[in-house]
Amino acid sequence: MASVLLSVNQVSKSYGARKAVDGVSFQVQQGQTVGLIGPNGAGKSTTVGMVCGLLRSDSGGIVMDGEAIGQGPSEAKRKIGFVPQDLALYEDLSSLENLKLFGALYGLKGALLKQRCEQALALVNLADRAHDKPSTYSGGMKRRLNIAAALLHDPQLLILDEPTVGVDPQSRNAIFDTLEALKAQGRSLIYTSHYMEEVERLADHIVIIDHGKVLADETPAALYRRLPAQAALRAELSAAPSAARVSA
Ligand code: ADP
Q1: Of 12, 13, 14, 15, which is best to mutate to test ligand 1, by the most ligand atoms within 8 angstroms of its C-beta?
Q2: 173-189, pLDDT tens digit by residue?
Q3: Residues with Cβ within 6 A of ligand 1?
Q4: Which of 38, 77, 145, 195 is the most exposed place for a label (fewest CB within 10 A)?
Q5: Which CATH class is domain 1-79+157-165+186-225?
Q6: Ligand 1 atom 25, closest CA
Q7: Can you give the pLDDT at residue 1?
Q8: Could you please report the per-residue DSSP string of 189-246?
Q9: What does the domain layout of the chain look like in residue ranges?
């Protein structure tokens, strides 16, 4: 049985009087992809912000690979890579220079930094554009570069906050290909989206959140079984069935 990598336990957070996240709990197993689904304003970004340690929860706890996520740097936080909604790239630097900068912030240097940058660019399929500036990239390519930046420190868990918002279908597929490659490497993923169809291809487990609360936490198959039937099966018989068979 897979072991638990991340455990989010009864986490809550308010902004002033507004309760953005209200007692959210879910888990991510080793190697699992969890789709965190909900409409705009449901509390997805706030939840993943707390998981990464970027936001402080008001109550509850988050445990990553056996260690509590708290304030300040920690080994647990280094095991997480975060791809935020807002692109955080330096437009005046080439892609490779951007990655070297991000890698250096994680304390990487020398041959290891170079190797990680090359691996990450290859994974997101941008190796041939490494020396171009992100300003010459499409929106989807910038997103993929952002994914590469979040992978440099070799995190066990990659969290992507709505990575396909505003990108064309072809780029969306390229992002999915990258995420499938990461899955095949055995990494765990949390993928937030407001579209169920978005996560169908990737997610092993789906957590639906609205108004800051978890409404469902199950496999896609179990979730579909709970939906009302949307299609009827119509069969035509080539000959009248015998009375015995109809009653069987
Ligand atoms: P989602 O990612 O699902 O769209 P968010 O976590 O961004 O949801 O937001 C949840 C709720 O918290 C929303 O009502 C949003 O308006 C509010 N909210 C988010 N960030 C802030 C903030 N920095 N200050 C005040 N309210 C916020």
Answers
A1: 15
A2: 889 999 999 999 999 99
A3: 15, 18, 20, 38, 40-46
A4: 195
A5: alpha beta
A6: 15
A7: 59
A8: EEEEES-HHHHHTT-SEEEEEETTEEEEEE-HHHHHHHSPP--------SSPPPHHHH
A9: 1-79+157-165+186-225, 85-154
